[in-house]
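Dear Dr. V.,

Thank you for agreeing to look over these. As mentioned in my earlier message, I'm a first-year student in the group and I'm still getting used to reading structure tokens, so any feedback on how I've presented them would be very welcome. I ran two proteins. I've put each sequence directly above its structure. The first is here:
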Amino acid sequence: MPIIRKRLSELGAGDRNYSFPKPTEAQIQKWKEEDGDENFEFSDFRLVRNVNVRALRERLGLTQQEFARRYRFPLRSVQEWEQGRKRPAAGTMTLLLAISRKPKALADALA
């Protein structure tokens, strides 16, 4: 899958309607085969802007320390994300999105 890069100035101030080229059916089929997931359904690209870490943690009923330990994040990072002093890196944001969708599966995978 190609990486699409745009400068912030190309997106426009406050513009949240990013347009990305849609993949072909062949690309989607290739991803299904690579991932071993025939039930995969492609809907559209979504840009992960932010995950509310505090809301996610509270929904899971965990303390900051329990959340950090379960998903192997530094406790200080969890605290700073929740207080808005720092934002998770893009890869971490993707992991947080996966945790929000399948928290038990991710916890089991990391155990």
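The second protein is here, in the same arrangement:
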Amino acid sequence: MVPDSNGHHAQIMKGVLDMCLLATIAEKPNYGYGMVQQLNDRGWVIAHENSIYPVLKRLTKGGYIESELVPSTSGPARKYYSATSDGEEVLAIWTADWRNVRDGVDAVLGNGRNGSKAKTAKKSPTKKKSTNKKAKGKQ
């Protein structure tokens, strides 16, 4: 049976959504739908903007973002979020953590800058098999 890849994908996405939303807010203050559009434009498809509001609440509670209502020319006022100085500091830490994890995963999977290490590891079982054949022939 094939495992549920959608569930795995959702777990990965949930794990980095806080960081990605904080990064977009740190670039430029934005409102919910605007953030969803920005993430979608960058290749991260979010089905509905409602999925980001629990994250925004968590980031606000953590002191990483703050919000203010801004009048809109096309309807009701919008709640714009901006990064706090604590948010910018934690984003730098999260970004460094993400890059370390990404590089480690790439090394294990044989991709990216450290891919040669993983490729070398793949070759070693072949060497062991040929060594074992030689040992069997000598017996």
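From my reading of the second output: Residues 85-109 form the longest helix (25 residues). The chain has five helices and three strands. Does that match how you would interpret it?

Kind regards,
E.
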